[in-house]
Amino acid sequence: MSPNLFLPAAVIFDMDGVLVDTNPFHVRKWEALLTGYGIAFDHKTLPMQVLGPGNDPTLRHFFGERITAEDRHRLSEELEASFRVAFAPHAKPLPGVERLITECHDHGVLMALASAAMSKNVFFILDALKLRPFFQVILTGDEITHSKPHPEIFSKTAQKLALLPADCVVIEDSFVGIEAAKSAGMKCVAVASTFPAPELRDHTRADLVIQTLEALTLHKLRELFDRPTYEP
After folding, report:
1. Residue 54 has pLDDT above 80, yes or no
2. Rounded mean pLDDT, 203-209
3. Which of 40, 58, 89 is the last residue of a domain?
4. Model pTM?
């Protein structure tokens, strides 16, 4: 019997770009906001700047460190309200999501969601996808102090699951998310739904890079625990 038969003890999913293809809608909401305020941005680099980190550091980046907490909260609420209206008609899980979640559920593997998105967005999307009941722990951007690539969101998720980080695997799509997972001491699978697979292989510490979750099985996740782990 494989010594890693019962690992991972938990699979921790990011949401945007992993469970659902929200990222184009997130980029558009930022384009509209920045254009409306006359703030210059580069269309090519914008996805890297806005996909992964929470709204708070991104607003400070574009509006400057003098932007008040009150204005950050107001702009963030406006951003996400417009996102939910635009995205609602298009809500559906990415290919392979439902199969992988069902496989983990059937084999007793715990599942958690760790997303930098605000709680309103997270629960809106999980309910639209009918996936909320599968997650034992849901951690959102409203519950953390430090945005990715800081490992806080994944460390807190492991604590809520009452598990060691080394026994968990994260599924992520962003550079900052992958770095956060590895810094937390977890295995990480990178999905090339947002950034090209060669860039993820060459510029992250992901343990495995896949094109879509259709290529991922619980067996492949268990195989990761036969490989050495990067030190945080």
Report:
1. no
2. 97
3. 89
4. 0.82
Q: How far apart are CA 224 and CA 209, in angstroms?
A: 12
Q: Looking at the structure, do residues 116 and 183 belong to the same domain, yes or no?
A: yes
Answer yes or no: do 107 and 176 share one domain: yes
Close Cβ partners of 122 (under 8 Å, ≥ 6 residues apart): 15, 113, 115, 138, 140
Instruction: Report CA torsion sign: 129, 165, 197, 47.
Output: positive
Residue 81's domain comprises: 23-89
C-alpha–C-alpha distance, residues 8 and 19, integer Å: 19
| Burial class of residue 101 (count of CB atoms within 10 Å of its CB; 0-12, 13-18, 19+) | buried
State pLDDT tens for residues 12-50: 999 999 999 988 898 999 999 999 999 999 999 998 898
Query: How many domains, the chain?
Result: 2
Of the candidates 116, 108, 171, 165, the one whose C-alpha atom is nearest the C-alpha of residue 136 is 108
Question: What is the rounded average pLDDT of the residues 140-158?
Answer: 95
Count CB neighbours of 100 within 10 A.
22
